[in-house]
Amino acid sequence: MSDRTETEIMDLVRAIDVRAPQELHRSVRAMADQRSAGRRRRPLVLAVPAAAALAAVIAALLASAGPARPPALDAGAAARPALSASTGPAPGEQANHLDVAVDGLVFPYWGAGWAAVGTRRDRLAGRDVTTVLYRDRAGRTVGYAIIAGTPAPQLGGGRELTAGGVRFREFSAGSATVLTWIRHGHLCVIAGRGVGAATLSALARTA
Fold first, then answer.
1. Which residue of 68, 115, 191, 195 is surrounded by the most CB atoms within 10 Å?
2. What CATH number was assigned to the domain covering residues 75-204?
3. Rounded to two decimals, what is the model's pTM?
């Protein structure tokens, strides 16, 4: 193995950004010191077992990192898909849900009172977002968005409220009311203009 290859391996070890045990980091530093001191006196072929040892350390560091941190998401960005116009057709309807789902989570069917009128797909914080737009008889529109992937993105701020045993966070986005909550590990967003938090939470709890 060439000096260049071994150097690249060491650089990779140093670049790993994980919370690993300190003894592992000390082992990596010790290997680097031994490599520098022994380069002049050991045959080049001895770099192969050293590289294997480094690979084992890399694996241990990655294993000790634990699950990836969920991405952070701004409340305004989270609300945007639910407050935007549809770009796709309305999904088909079943007895109590629609023919569209995210990671197995189906969108609710709210009957004639809030009919599904369109869909849209977006990307937020590296995640796919699917939104269904609903409209009531008065012409008000509500967007229901589900962000794919778990753990759910981190979303701070807002006012916490509990309705029907479900914990929501309430935000304002201009004239719109926005509620977010966690449904089976997924971040969900429901938002509408001229629609209060009580109506939005009642709709959300039917999902």
1. 191
2. 3.30.200.100
3. 0.68
